[in-house]
Write a structure and sequence with these properties.
This protein is α/β, with parallel strands linked by helices. About 30% of the residues lie in helices and about 20% in strands.
């Protein structure tokens, strides 16, 4: 499954299945991809007993906002915001989404409150559409910025957690968030999704790929590929947010152990929505990204579920504009509402 980085171009993005392949071939290919991916991620300890502490509660016009902290593996405590629409009740449980934030110092506040930036308040907008929403701080963001450390600088995290990866830590925290949502009597445990932009977007893909309890995922500017990427080192070790340090040795050798559309494909055949922008300054390799999503679309067709994969591209920068958000919300409503 390893590739020479120099060989990866928009026109050579590897196929996910051979021509005529279907469910049986995909089962074997998927297992091989997941084995490689898990080796790269490092430790992924299972969930711990669900325990949360509510530290504040605010009543808004159409929902309740609870600020809480939940336990996660390894002794971590994760600050989060839970949004519950007024109509949700034990006898009328609602669908739920994890709203994963982008690379922003304020973390969860950006997506779950009115203080968030324009085009980033997707958690707040989804509770207004009837979803229970849980938005948590990723490591090095929001209330998880440690004293003396800078936002999105992971050197301290790696010093305290040898052998881990930042992506692995975030995934463990997100899986625990799913555990928490499933204990709430206002949530239908069989209708949980995830949404995110940028960092939150690819985290949503990673989570859905490894946790089948995520029944639908929607991402904005969170899908890319190594092919034609002018900065593939962004995924390895660097002087601020180091996602997956084990990739650095491969990248230095001019190889990669997988292509990113293979990791996204772990979600299939569950529903996946992706918005990409042709003028995205963070992921500017839009032609290769389009080739990668075309391979994902072919996979959904081959598995017999073409409507479950929705991959949109349009003009714009690294943003989650209203048109894309509305399409993402409609997608989540289609697959998470009964």
């Amino acid at each position: 499954m390893a590739y020479r980085l120099a060989d990866l171009r928009a026109e050579t993005v590897p196929p996910l299945l051979p021509d005529g392949g279907g469910e049986e071939q995909w089962a074997g290919a998927r297992a091989a991809i997941e084995r490689v991916w898990r080796r790269c991620l490092g430790p992924l300890p299972g969930p711990v007993a669900v325990r949360q502490t509510v530290v504040a509660e605010h009543h808004e016009a159409d929902h309740v906002r609870r600020h809480l902290v939940y336990d996660a593996p390894g002794g971590e405590q994760v600050p989060a915001i839970l949004l519950v629409p007024h109509h949700a009740a034990a006898d009328r449980p609602a669908p739920a989404v994890l709203a994963l934030h982008p690379t922003v110092d304020t973390g969860k506040v950006d997506v779950a409150t009115a203080a968030g930036r324009p085009n980033r308040r997707y958690g707040l907008e989804l509770v207004q559409r009837g979803f229970v929403v849980l938005a948590a701080d990723a490591i090095t963001a929001g209330d998880r910025i440690r004293d003396g450390e800078q936002p999105f600088h992971t050197a301290g995290f790696y010093a305290r957690n040898p052998g881990w990866t930042a992506v692995g830590r975030m995934l463990v925290d997100h899986v625990q968030a799913v555990e928490l949502l499933r204990t709430l009597d206002v949530v239908d445990p069989d209708r949980i999704g995830a949404i995110g932009h940028s960092l939150g977007g690819y985290n949503a893909i990673f989570l859905a790929g490894l946790d089948p309890r995520i029944r639908a995922v929607a991402v904005s500017c969170g899908f890319s590929v190594f092919a034609d990427d002018p900065d593939p080192g962004r995924w390895g070790e660097r002087d601020w947010f180091s996602h997956l340090p084990p990739l650095t040795a491969d990248l230095t050798a001019g190889t990669v152990p997988f292509e990113w559309h293979e990791i996204a494909a772990l979600v299939a055949p569950r529903p996946m929505f992706s918005w990409s922008a042709r003028q995205d300054e963070i992921f500017p390799n839009w032609a290769a990204i389009a080739a990668g999503t075309a391979q994902l679309s072919r996979l959904y067709h081959a598995l017999g579920h073409p409507r479950r994969g929705e991959f949109l591209a349009g003009d714009g920068g690294h943003d989650f504009p209203a048109s894309a958000r509305l399409a993402a919300y409609a997608f989540l409503e289609r697959w998470l509402n009964p």
